[in-house]
Each structure stands twice: as structure tokens, then as C-alpha cells.
Write a structure and sequence with these properties.
A 3-stranded antiparallel β-sheet has the order 3-2-4, with helices on one face. It has a 3-stranded antiparallel β-sheet with strand order 6-12-11. Helix 2 crosses helix 6, helix 10 runs antiparallel to helix 13 and helix 12 runs antiparallel to helix 13. It is of the alpha+beta class. It has 14 helices and 18 strands. The longest helix is centred in the C-terminal third of the chain and has 32 residues.
């Protein structure tokens, strides 16, 4: 037997907090069984930017292992999961160990090294240096900060690196589940509960049920590669995506862990090609969590702005994006739920922020979204509200702010504040007013956002330095411009308000 250390299948390497608030060190089979039992509250060493990588890994792994064994019901016992996971690696444990001395064999998220040595590879001893945040500036999240690393830190870092990273310089290629090398792997899903357990069981069931729809895209059904780190890789050859399981777990970098006086050393090197040959698909590879741009047939990419209300209404309602399988509302979903989004936005050589959002969706809206006419109606309301918000910013508030002498960054800060305040209320108001007649719904929204913009103008007036002799003239001009722009852009609102005032008199 080759020398191995830190076996995820048999050793308790992961610190988990349970629903009863106790902590427990678990093996990987233990984790899967606890999730199936509904017992997990949190993974204590998992960092926020690693959450989707870890969740997706567990769901994909469980779905593939169950399919391979022909199971439909999610096992709840650890020894059952141990058997299923070993079944994925021909009953060998080396692919589940962090350290395997024999370089001809795979280790956890580490492909075999055909050269038989690590002489040409770079070394580092910090798990966060290999992680996806290696591109982050040190004023954001410090790099090389985990001086005393445990195996679980390396487990999470390897999962994040190999399943979430994009291009990072010459010879460092990214994953195939993003629409470009400098893109990101976002997640958009619907769930009836926010905890780890319900999301896990729900999405494993969905993946099992939807396998055939992914197979129809051209990948093999049962004999495809599941765990790409099992295959030797010298950095010069790519794997065809048609040879992969629908839910394959990929790798994008050559890396190998060794121990030096009980401290981990990571050996890394560049490659001349990406591990998967699928660049032309632009991320449209059947990822269960990524919506697909209908017009261009490519995976959703999220900018540094994150999941704004404009983007989200486009994803949820407009039809511009094909829903992914975990985003869909199921026939038996009748009560309230949440739309859960995640992305670590990336650019060329940098990260642009971690964006997470959970939007509550009332039961009546959940039921409405299951019907075509309900979704179409909501889409129309949402689109009009987005357009009105844009009109308010561009054609109502901008001119009065400029009259106060605000330009460039100062102007943009006030407009961004308006956008932020609209973002905070957009979906709550959309859900609450979904049953109103279109004209009344539009007026309610106009009144609300006009009041918000009026408050912002007043804040700008209070905080902007103005010459004393001209102060009241400038204020009067700004307020007059605001009123005139409102009358021009929202004439129905102005007439409605005028009639209301006359009635009160």
C-alpha cells in the first residue's frame, strides 16, 4: 500500500457545528449522512467565498455516487456513503487522501504526475495562497494569513481552487463552468429553506431527476468521467467534455500536496492547455446553478455590481435567461421560499467582490411563478418598474443635482444612493403590489421612488457647500427643476396628485 495521509473517507478532518449547537469532527461520509439527516448547521472553517464551491461539490458528488449505485433515495448512514464514495474510485482510498506519496496515483483534487517528480514545480505552504482569492488585494482579504493550517483548510482551498478559479496569468487556465477565462461561476437557485441540509437534499433530488436533460446536450450517461483528478495529467493534453459525466467534478490546475515536518507544502505548476476542452461552449455545460443567456447561448456572468435588482428581475422573470435546474420552482412548492444567489465576481487579474443575496418570495408569488400567465404578468410589472427607476435617475434627479454644482464622482455617489435605496425595496414592493391593476401599480411605484429621490435631493442640498448669497436661489432652482422633470416624465402621477389635492381642499 502506498503511503497516504489524511483520508477524507475514514478520518474526522472536518469540523461541523450541528443543529443542537454541538461541534463534531467528521469524515466526508459523516458529512453527507448528517446533511441527509438534517443535522448540519455550519462548517466551521469554511470561508464565505468557499461556500458555493463546497455546497456544489457535495451535491454533485452525492448525485453521481447515487446514480452510479442505482439509488433513488438519499442514504442517511455514514457507512452507506463510505461504500458509495469508494465505488466511485474502484474501492481505492488514495483519491480521497490529501497526501499520497506515490505520484503515479491520484490524491484529493490532485491528478497523478506522469513525470514522477515535483522538481519543476513552485512551492508554498499557505492554503489561502492557492485559493481563488489569490488575486485579492491585501487591503480586502489578507493572503497567506493561515499560518497554522489544518487539513480542513486545505480541503476547502483545493475545492475552491479546482472548481471555481478562472484564468490567472500565463499557463494558469480556469474551469469550464464560466463563460470566459476572466468570468465567474455564479449560482442562482430557489429553495424552501436556507439551511445546508434542505438545500442539499432538494438539489441532489433535482440533479438525479434532471440527468437525462444534461445527457441530451451530448455527454455520456453512465460511463463518463466523474472525478477528473483521477486521470493522469502532464499539462499538455485536454479531456473532451463529451467524455464526462453530466455532473463531472473538474480540476483546472496541476497541484500536489506533500508534508514537511507535519506542515503542508503545495507544489504547483502551469500547463500548456486547459484540463477540459470546452472553450467554445462559453460555460453552457449544464451547470445546475448557472442561468444561460438565451440570445447568446452562454453562461451568466456577473459584473462587480453583483446581483442588482435590474439583473435579478432579468434572470427571474424576463425570459432573457434560461433557468437552471435548481432555480426552477417545483410542482409541490406552494409555501414561501427564497431565491439564493452567489458569485465571486472576477476580472482580468483581480477579484471584484463577493456578492451573496437571499430574496424571500411569499407563497402567493411562488404559486404565481409556477404559471406562465403569472410569470408573464410579474415580468411586465418588473420591467416597467426598472424602466421608471432608470428614467427617475437619468431624467429627473440628475439635472437638479447638477444645478447644485455636483458632477463626476460627486454626482455618481448621489445617483448610486438612489439605486441602492431602490434595490433595497424593489422585490418587496413588487411582490406586495403584484395583484394591483397595471395603472395603479405603476402609480404606487412612481410615488414611492419619487419620494425617495426627493429625500436624496434634500440630503444633497443639506450637505453641499453653497455661497451664502446664492444659497436660496440655488435651492429654489434645484427644487423647481425636480418638480418640472417629474411632471414631464411622470405626467399621470402629477395629475393624480393634483386631483387628490383638489379633493382635499
Amino acid at each position: 500500500m502506498p503511503e497516504t495521509r489524511f483520508n477524507l473517507l475514514t478520518e474526522p478532518l472536518l469540523n461541523v457545528r450541528l443543529q443542537d449547537r454541538t461541534e463534531r469532527w467528521c469524515s466526508l461520509p459523516d458529512v453527507l449522512s448528517l446533511l441527509a439527516q438534517g443535522s448540519v448547521e455550519a462548517f466551521l472553517a469554511l470561508q464565505p467565498h468557499q461556500t458555493h464551491a463546497w455546497h456544489a461539490f457535495l451535491v454533485q458528488l452525492a448525485a453521481m455516487a447515487m446514480h452510479k449505485a442505482g439509488l433513488a433515495a438519499i442514504p442517511s448512514k455514514s457507512d452507506e456513503w463510505l461504500s458509495l464514495l469508494r465505488g466511485m474510485t474502484e474501492n481505492r482510498d488514495e483519491p480521497w487522501c490529501l497526501v499520497v506519496e506515490d505520484l503515479a496515483l491520484p490524491a484529493f483534487f490532485q491528478s497523478p504526475v506522469p513525470e514522477g517528480n515535483l522538481c519543476s514545480m513552485d512551492e508554498n505552504s499557505f492554503p489561502d495562497v492557492i485559493d481563488i482569492l489569490a488575486t485579492a488585494k491585501n487591503h480586502d482579504v489578507k493572503s497567506a494569513r493561515i499560518a497554522y493550517s489544518l487539513p480542513q483548510h486545505w480541503i476547502y482551498a483545493l475545492t475552491s481552487l479546482q472548481t471555481m478559479h478562472g484564468v490567472y496569468g500565463r499557463g494558469k487556465y480556469g474551469i469550464t463552468r464560466m463563460n470566459s477565462g476572466y468570468g465567474s461561476r455564479p449560482s442562482v437557485s430557489f429553495c424552501t429553506d436556507l439551511d445546508w441540509n434542505r438545500r442539499f437534499t432538494r438539489e441532489v433530488d433535482i440533479l438525479l431527476r434532471e440527468r437525462n436533460s444534461i445527457v441530451a446536450m451530448g455527454r455520456k450517461h453512465r460511463d463518463g468521467y466523474c472525478l477528473l483528478w483521477l486521470l493522469p495529467w502532464d499539462g499538455t493534453n485536454s479531456v473532451s467534455i463529451e467524455d464526462c459525466d453530466p455532473y463531472f467534478i473538474e480540476i483546472c490546475r496541476r497541484i500536489r500536496l506533500r508534508l514537511d515536518s507535519e506542515s503542508f507544502i503545495a507544489y504547483t505548476t502551469s500547463t500548456s492547455v486547459s484540463r477540459l476542452n470546452a472553450k467554445e461552449l462559453k460555460g453552457n455545460v449544464g451547470d445546475p446553478w448557472i442561468p444561460i443567456d438565451v440570445a447568446e447561448g452562454k453562461a451568466l456572468n456577473v459584473s462587480g455590481e453583483g446581483f442588482s435588482y435590474r439583473l435579478l428581475q432579468d434572470i427571474i422573470l424576463s425570459g432573457s435567461y434560461k433557468q437552471n435546474m435548481t432555480q426552477q420552482i417545483l410542482p409541490d412548492d406552494t409555501k414561501e421560499g427564497w431565491l439564493i444567489t452567489f458569485v465571486l465576481s472576477r476580472g482580468e487579474g483581480k477579484t471584484k467582490g463577493l456578492h451573496q443575496r437571499s430574496i424571500p418570495i411569499p407563497g402567493k408569488i411562488v404559486r404565481s411563478l409556477k404559471r406562465l400567465e403569472g410569470r408573464t404578468s410579474l415580468a411586465g410589472i418588473a420591467k416597467r418598474r426598472v424602466d421608471m427607476a432608470a428614467t427617475l435617475s437619468d431624467s429627473v434627479l440628475t439635472l437638479p443635482l447638477k444645478s447644485l454644482g455636483l458632477y463626476g464622482k460627486a454626482l455618481q455617489n448621489w445617483l448610486s444612493l438612489l439605486d441602492q435605496k431602490i434595490d433595497e425595496i424593489f422585490f418587496d414592493q413588487l411582490w406586495a403590489e403584484a395583484d394591483l391593476e397595471p395603472t395603479e401599480s405603476d402609480r404606487c411605484w412612481q410615488r414611492l421612488i419619487v419620494d425617495i429621490s426627493k429625500d436624496i435631493l434634500n440630503e444633497a442640498i443639506e450637505s453641499t457647500p453653497m455661497p451664502g448669497v446664492r444659497r436660496y436661489r440655488l435651492i429654489s432652482k434645484a427644487q423647481g427643476l425636480f418638480a418640472a422633470c417629474c411632471r414631464k416624465q411622470f405626467p399621470d402621477l402629477d395629475q393624480s396628485s393634483h386631483r387628490s389635492e383638489e379633493k382635499d381642499e
